[in-house]
What does this fold into?
Amino acid sequence: EMQLVESGGGLVQPGGSLRLSCAASGFTFSTYAIAWVRQAPGKWLEWVSDINGGDSTSRYVDSVKGRFTISRDNHKNTLYLQMNSLKPEDTAVYYCAKGDSTVLRRRNDVDSWGKGTLVTVSL
It folds into this structure.
């Protein structure tokens, strides 16, 4: 059974940093693309970043470029999201999402979701 478990969320002040983790099991982690997707209160899901299986090419939504870094440790079967210079608008539940191939470009290509971890950016 495929499983994704996020951790690392919490309350942080504006300008602060957090590192999210997503521990994966039940599939060959290195092969598949994985994404971070967030949902702010009262808003739609927003694609934050994704990283390919194999070559680990990554992409980011414009609003987090230069502040967030996605990475993966294929030996530990873990995905990370380093978040720096956090802003109140980054407040959301952050989910990791596994793609069904080495590249993940659309929500329809997601075949497994984690339950999410809450990030709150506030004074």
Summary: The chain has no helices and eleven strands. The radius of gyration is 13 Å.
